[in-house]
Write a structure and sequence with these properties.
Elements (H helix, E strand, L loop, with lengths): L1 H5 L4 H12 L15 H12 L4 E4 L2 H15 L5 E4 L19 E4 L1 H10 L2 H5 E4 L8 E4 L13
Parallel strand pairs: 1-3, 2-3
Antiparallel strand pairs: 4-5
Length: 153
C-alpha cells in the first residue's frame, strides 16, 4: 500500500514522510509552509500507520477544505465519508460508516452532540464517591469495540 499512496505525493512531500519513518515518530505536528501539502501528508501518514478507520476532526470552517483536498488528492480511490449534518443524506442519528471507508471527516460539535445525546459518559465513566470524606474516584471503561465500527449505543 505504501507505494500506491506515494504516487499521490510530490518528491518534497515524500521526503517529509520518509523523515517521519526514519525517526520512528509516533506523533507530532507538521510545521511546513503554506501550500506545502500538510493536509495530504497527514492523510497519507494516517493511512500508512493505521489499519483501521481514520477519524479526522476539524472545525466546520475547515471541513470543506479537507473534503476538497481528499477529492483532489485521491480522485475517488480512497473511500471516505463525512459525518456532519450538512453532508448527510440519511438520518444522521443512525449513521454508521460503510465497511470500505478509510477516512471519516467530522467536527468537534458533532462529537460533542453525539456524546451528550447518547449519554456516553454514563457508559464509559464511573464516579465512585467514598462514604467518608475523601477524593472521588473516577474509572474509565473503554468501549469493547470502536464506536465508529458500528457498536450499538
Amino acid at each position: 500500500m505504501q507505494a500506491e499512496l506515494f504516487k499521490y505525493l510530490k518528491p518534497a512531500q515524500r521526503e517529509e514522510i520518509d523523515e517521519v519513518f526514519a525517526r520512528s515518530m509516533r506523533n507530532g505536528g507538521l510545521s511546513l509552509p503554506l501550500g506545502y501539502g500538510k493536509t495530504r501528508i497527514s492523510m497519507i501518514l494516517g493511512l500508512l500507520q493505521n489499519k483501521g478507520l481514520i477519524l479526522v476532526v476539524v472545525s466546520k470552517t475547515l471541513l470543506a477544505s479537507w473534503l476538497d483536498e481528499i477529492e483532489k488528492a485521491f480522485a475517488g480511490t480512497i473511500p471516505f465519508e463525512v459525518m456532519h449534518q450538512t453532508y448527510q443524506k440519511k438520518a444522521f442519528s443512525t449513521w454508521v460508516p460503510k465497511p470500505e471507508t478509510k477516512i471519516v471527516l467530522t467536527t468537534p460539535e458533532v462529537l460533542t452532540d453525539g456524546y451528550s445525546v447518547h449519554k456516553l459518559s454514563a457508559r464509559f465513566i464511573e464516579y465512585i464517591v467514598p462514604p467518608v470524606f475523601g477524593p472521588t474516584i473516577v474509572r474509565y471503561r473503554p468501549p469493547s469495540v470502536p464506536l465508529l465500527a458500528g457498536e450499538q449505543i
